[in-house]
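**User:** My hope is that you can spare some time for a protein that puzzles me. I have put the entry right below:
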Amino acid sequence: MPGFRAEHSPRAVTWPNLRFVTVHPVQWLRQHDRGFAALRRAARAAIVMPALFALSTQVIGNSSIATFAAFGSFAVLLLVDFGGPMHERLQSQAAMGLAGAVLVALGTLAGQNPWLAAAVMGLVAFTVLFAGVVSSVLAGAAPALLLAFILPVATKAPIAQIPDRLAGWGLAAVTSLFAVALLWPAPAREPLRGPSSQACQALARRLRADVDYRMQPDDVAVAEAHMQAVVDANAAVAALHAAFLATPYRPTGLSTPARTLVRLVDEINWLNTVVVKTSPMHRHHPVIQSALTVKLAAADVLSVGDEVLGGRSEVAHLSAAVQTLHDALGAMERDATHSLPVRRIPAANRVAAPGSDAGEDDSVEIISSLDPTFRAQELSFAVSEIAANIERTVLAERRNWLQRLTGQQPRGLTGTLAAAQERAVAHLERHSVWLHNSVRGAIALAVAIFVANRTGVQHSFWVVLGTLSVLRSNALNTGQNILRGMLGTAIGVAAGAGLLVAIGTNIVALWLVLPVAILIAGVAPAAISFAAGQAGFTLTLVILYNVIAPTGWRVGLVRVEDVAIGGAVSLAVGVLFWPRGAGSALGLALADSYTDSVRYLARAVQYGVSRCAQPPAQPGRAEQGPADPLEPPLAESLLAAAASRRLDDTFRTYLAERGPKPVPVAEITGLLTGVASVRLAADAVVDLWQRDGAADPGDRDAARQELLNSAASVQTWFDRFADGLSGAARIPEPAPHDTDSDGRLIDAVRRDLSSADGNATATAVRVIWTGDHLDAVRRLEDALVGPARAAVDRGGVTKRTWVWWWREGTLH
């Protein structure tokens, strides 16, 4: 048409002095509702909820059944979206239905007395909310399970109505199974599998490119290919980490494959760090062929791991590749013992390493000669761990129904109940944000039930639901949500009033617009905003209550009052209990993680040096006690893993909280990566000494003492660093490298752990590699101090944050 100019999507339309942009509705929804997940849930609810409501009111003629069928459908179809294969989704849906039935009966019984109702509400709320630490499945089901209890406990009825209420809930639960399976079934969602597979393949290409560049450093094409491989590997690992942090809780359930897949994230992140450190050395340094062979074997393992995760190869092929890697590692260790110059080289005959002083002690030469082999050993450990978890994932998926039923696990994994207990115990700690949120939620809901009963409001259920809807992890976000909730509710009341004015009391018309209102209520929170979701839900309630009995738009005003009461309860509890939320707990969580991880590292070194002790005269187990140095440090490993899990949940809550982030997320992510690096370095030390064979001859006392001193020095610095993160002290300066300690360690190895022919023993090489692991952790200090000081200096809820809330936060 003349006067218009159109461009491709989004379409720009120009009128003589006016330009505006139009976007196709489907494209807009795709941008705001990834994978149409919210639309899928809303569409199912829009079909099932009115159908069950009609069945209960028009055919069965029972209002209790109708109420619980309608709100039950809302809970199990709109508030929950399980992932994974279809059979796992249906199992989770059925389990949620059974648990909800128990809560419906319990809520009806508790609702007979206001004091009992409040007490049981608090207990149930804490149990349901805290159980979310066990798995993402339970965390995702928490809103629906809470609704299953809130509805009966807040609507007092005779105990004789329990069967009717259970019938309504049962209708919703059973119908939800068919809806999930048949009505627009969602594809299986495994957010970590694809990114993990792609990261493995990208890192494999990076390793091969490293070897090519090391062998042909002057070839321009090889150099460009290497640079591109580095970029691709970093991007793939970053994508995996982003997928891991994209959900409000750890994307892992209690199923064995889910537990093993989530372990890959830290391991692949650490591997990428290891790969960066194993980048090609200076061209003038000698090529150690055995180390390059290990690197190529590790690349093959990662490539096969990618194929196994993608279903394009068998586990047997992965096992064969891992065995090849271990053979290459063994050959490299033997080569290292023969090539290590343990004899002191006269200064006149010594060839200085590039950039070094020819008069320096030959410890520099010895450490330089072992550095490539140490990096290859570190790489081999990381890749082997990744391969082991990929193998466990696939083997767990291929178990038959009897093996699953009896709880048989792949080797190296604990059972489901043990894993659940381990995760729950990890959060029974006073700094746990998940524990804080569970306690806060339990108190808020209990107070809401009591206030609603004592004030005699018309719909107690709405008060408690309002409390649940707006309560967040800190007082700032709770206050914002109260304003948004009130605004959305008012808009919903206005929309309902306009609708009722237009169609009057025409029941047929109300039935026709009910599915549309449910659809809007389901899509709006994800695609638009929390306030839009509250508006859609209020409109649905106005229509629903007018279908039951024409009451006009004034029922919406009652909801405004009830939401205001519920919001006031939430705000009061939010101010009284941990009002600053995850922001104030993040430093403490980081401090605990570093403290426990470095304690694990020190204990791993103690285990290693005990393994290299002289064989005779070890006291009995009863005399050694629980801290037997000859036993792997399992307890310390579990404590470090638990602290890391609490840190991850704290960080996710911090990301989910609205408002400005005083500390850039990238800096905090660097601190989290440091925790994983320390913990996995300890794993590597344990693995190094567990593979130790027969004891070599020689006096080990001097070498052992140097390692213990180095470990104590590293532990002391990280303990001070943890004190700084918690606010108890200043962040310390990085410790200077103790070159004298390196020299003493080399002298001890050379003097006491050389074989008759003058070569190093295998124990000597492991001693030096253990020192290298400690040195790798020490080198983290330089990278951690800057982000840590930024976090401490800019952390906390500042005045600027409160100004942001009032000026901008309430508008979004």
